[in-house]
Amino acid sequence: MRKPCTILRDISLSIHPGERIGLAGVSGAGKTTLLNLLLALKGADAGSITCQGRVVRPASVRALRWYRRLVQYIPQDPASSLDPRMSVRELIREPLVRLNVVAHHDRRIDEALDRVGLGQKFLGYRPDALSGGQAQRVAIARAVALRPRLLLADEPLSGLDLPVRARVMQLFDDMSRLDGTALLIISHDLSVMPRLCERTLILHDGAIIEDRPTQALFEAPVHDHTRALVRAARLDHTVITPASTPSFHPVS
Ligand SMILES: Nc1ncnc2c1ncn2[C@@H]1O[C@H](COP(=O)(O)OP(=O)(O)OP(=O)(O)O)[C@@H](O)[C@H]1O
Ligand SMILES: [Mg+2]
């Protein structure tokens, strides 16, 4: 039998409509574990999660359907999450049917495909006919078609070329600004946070050690660990800053 161990500690987190939050931390920090709790795929030993005033308990799939409609997920390795037997149309329709979403499904499918920049011709394609970047966008379209209130995305930009990255970032902007969707974006790499997220959390050894506006976190990291992550982001990548804000100065 495996010895019990504590993976997450003292997590306190509120996410408001339209907020874009980054969650960063090194490998093993607990990012996926936190994501699984937020998705109600796992239960915590202590504490609770509430959404729109209702407690989210580990419960049957049926009892959690209301929550599954509100909270969607873009997996880190989307190609492997797509059923190879299904066409793109069926893949985007499947969650709408499974979650009993009352809507014009074909319209939702067309709209979602358009929002991720894929043309109608892809509707009949199966995953093996898609490139990695196209498969990633189909996985994003599946989540977008449900019009979630909270979208959790695990490394959503990795593996995308620059024009597609820009398109997906614009989609996230639109979802938060126009639809009021809250976004929680996981990345081991801090360099994408200034462009994508107004607030960034740093997870370290299962605890949130920083939860601050992204710009402040970049300009004056409080913890040594955060300082190291910021420095690594600057060394490895060009930090993507929003067009409207000046570039951040390097941390010495
Ligand atoms: N089922 C489990 N049983 C025991 N330990 C686990 C289990 N799942 C995860 N862990 C441990 O919890 C810690 C956090 O794991 P987690 O997968 O959440 O990290 P992560 O931040 O997502 O890392 P990565 O960036 O590598 O994906 C790790 O030390 C891991 O070994
Ligand atoms: Mg992980």
TrEMBL record:
<keyword id="KW-0547">Nucleotide-binding</keyword>
<dbReference type="GO" id="GO:0055085">
    <property type="term" value="P:transmembrane transport"/>
</dbReference>
<dbReference type="InterPro" id="IPR017871">
    <property type="entry name" value="ABC_transporter-like_CS"/>
</dbReference>
<dbReference type="GO" id="GO:0016887">
    <property type="term" value="F:ATP hydrolysis activity"/>
</dbReference>
<dbReference type="InterPro" id="IPR003439">
    <property type="entry name" value="ABC_transporter-like_ATP-bd"/>
</dbReference>
<dbReference type="GO" id="GO:0005524">
    <property type="term" value="F:ATP binding"/>
</dbReference>
<feature type="domain" description="ABC transporter">
    <location>
        <begin position="1"/>
        <end position="230"/>
    </location>
</feature>
<dbReference type="InterPro" id="IPR027417">
    <property type="entry name" value="P-loop_NTPase"/>
</dbReference>
<dbReference type="InterPro" id="IPR050319">
    <property type="entry name" value="ABC_transp_ATP-bind"/>
</dbReference>
<protein>
    <submittedName>
        <fullName>ABC transporter ATP-binding protein</fullName>
    </submittedName>
</protein>
<keyword id="KW-0067">ATP-binding</keyword>
<dbReference type="InterPro" id="IPR003593">
    <property type="entry name" value="AAA+_ATPase"/>
</dbReference>
<dbReference type="Pfam" id="PF00005">
    <property type="entry name" value="ABC_tran"/>
</dbReference>
<keyword id="KW-0813">Transport</keyword>
